[in-house]
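[stage:ingest] chain + small molecule (nicotinamide-adenine-dinucleotide)
[stage:ingest] validated
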Amino acid sequence: MHIGIIGTGYVGLVTGACFAEFGVNVVCADKDREKIASLVAGKIPFYEPGLEEIVQKNVKKGFLRFTDRLSEAVDQSLVVFIAVGTPPRGDGSADLRFVEEVAKEIALNLDGYKVVVTKSTVPVGTGSKLKKLIRENLKNGGDFDVASNPEFLREGSAIEDFMRPNRVVIGTESPQAAAILKDLYNPLYLLDTPFVLTDIETAELIKYASNAFLATKISFINELSRLCEKVGADVGTVAKGMGLDKRIGSKFLHAGPGFGGSCFPKDTRAIINLARENGLELKLIESSVRVNEEQKMLMVDKIKDAMGQVGGKTLSVLGLSFKPNTDDMREAPAISIIGELMKQGARIRAFDPVAAGTAKKMLPDGVAYFKDPYEAAMGADGLVILTEWNELRNLDMERMRSVLAGNFFFDLRNIYDPARMRQTGFKYYSVGRS
Ligand SMILES: NC(=O)c1ccc[n+]([C@@H]2O[C@H](COP(=O)([O-])OP(=O)(O)OC[C@H]3O[C@@H](n4cnc5c(N)ncnc54)[C@H](O)[C@@H]3O)[C@@H](O)[C@H]2O)c1
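[stage:predict] done
[stage:export] tokens:
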């Protein structure tokens, strides 16, 4: 089968590379010429473990090709995936500009029958809007069906998530489109991956509902961590005790500085907006968003309360990306936390194993970046761990103490044991653990 993927970002590139790995002929298109030039040269424009290898392998085998001309991704393809960004607008709603732009271009290039699939996260109703838009813009005739096939991969483990997903959701009214997509996903079907076949609206909502639920789980434990601090309980053990109940599950119950990334913040706001447009208030999800905003500022308060003030102090921040194994800085808690610390007069020395390049574009000027955590700690009054990179889980505490000027240690991901940390002579603070 020949397929086209429009939008070669985290989702589009992983989707294209993984389908190529399944033996499908894939053309990936993006309007960003620099990105395409870098991909043609065999370089991945962002950090995702394992991706470079499968991209290079499949380009070599002839299964994967890159182009900046959208028509090339449509021409021979039976299935065309739309995987462009759907960033938030000022009011929180999803900006569908790129999706609509691509749908119109697909229409102009359509001749035979094709299935046009949204992989981008789009609000309910987008599928039927696109159907209309494509029909109105057809130039050479052509027949098509639309489908929704939301993506659930996690950055940092995207290949594994794509190759072994918990489920594949396909929404379409067309039995023909459903059969084609099932055929495309056949390698996963053979692995007994559950398939949810439904209508477009339901498929679109499954994606938002899933992200809103996971975000709510994080906000739930973060809010509970505040109570733990007041009453002397340990949030890690509370989460463990809760998570062992199979009805609850242990995932996404780690207290920390709040959720970030390219999906949870924008998708929670978008589902709230979608509900408002339909005359509803999603009170639980609204609270999750509010708790998350508060959580980031509570981390700043925690640092300030411990140190007296942060003005004039130097803090070494270790870990900047919104989670480990990615260089994605979109809505990373580091942005608000570092921004606020600097506003209050702190100087920041930062280290991240891979995200320094993207961080430079998103953090305030004046942050100093270092290639090593000990260098970043040199002469600082305190350390702040913001991302639980493996590289930060086994710091040499003696060496750290010798390079730091002060002895404050803020472990905002709870990766160290409080009792052992106190033995090292640090003034140790974490989240939800007294
Ligand atoms: N990143 C994730 O972890 C993740 C997971 C699941 C779903 N999603 C959803 O998938 C979608 C894509 O996310 P992403 O993180 O891959 O975005 P991204 O910003 O990394 O990539 C989007 C790409 O689309 C390209 N693009 C925009 N307009 C275009 C056009 N008219 N023609 C061709 N290319 C165009 C951009 O140049 C960019 O390379 C979003 O809706 C997102 O919510 C993302």
